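#lab-general

N.A. 3:47 PM
ok so I finally got the sequence cleaned up, no stray characters, all 147 residues accounted for. can someone with queue access submit it? mine expired

B.Y. 3:52 PM
send it over

N.A. 3:53 PM
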Amino acid sequence: MKSGRSKLALGAALIVAVIALFLILKPDDSDDGSPQAPVVSSSTGSTGVNGQDKVEKPKPPPVPTVIFRDGEPEDGVLKIDVKEGDQIRFNVKSDVPEEVHVHGYDISQDVAAGGTAKLDFKAEITGIFEAEMERSGIPIVELQINP
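B.Y. 4:20 PM
back already:
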């Protein structure tokens, strides 16, 4: 009778081992091909499945600003390096009334004393160009547009 009990015990142990392995190795219930993990919006902390909540777009880089004070750009000439086809954006704050002029592109914009001129144009011509305070002839921006 001992051999019968041994076989029974061995069979029971084998069944327990198979069940344990199945539980350990079975795929996760959410792994059925459809993503179920919540998506968290970094700005609101709200969650949703499959990105259904509003997801905030990355913020564009800040627009560089030249501060023209006491007859010169405060931090020196601003260097802007872009590729042809890129958008060029920069602001000019001035303590005197002036005209911002981008050479080569022949773009001009007036800026009032205490005001800000906002320049925004496409880099369509390659080369190195200067933007200056036209009336005083002071350079404020160096543009390098690469092919």
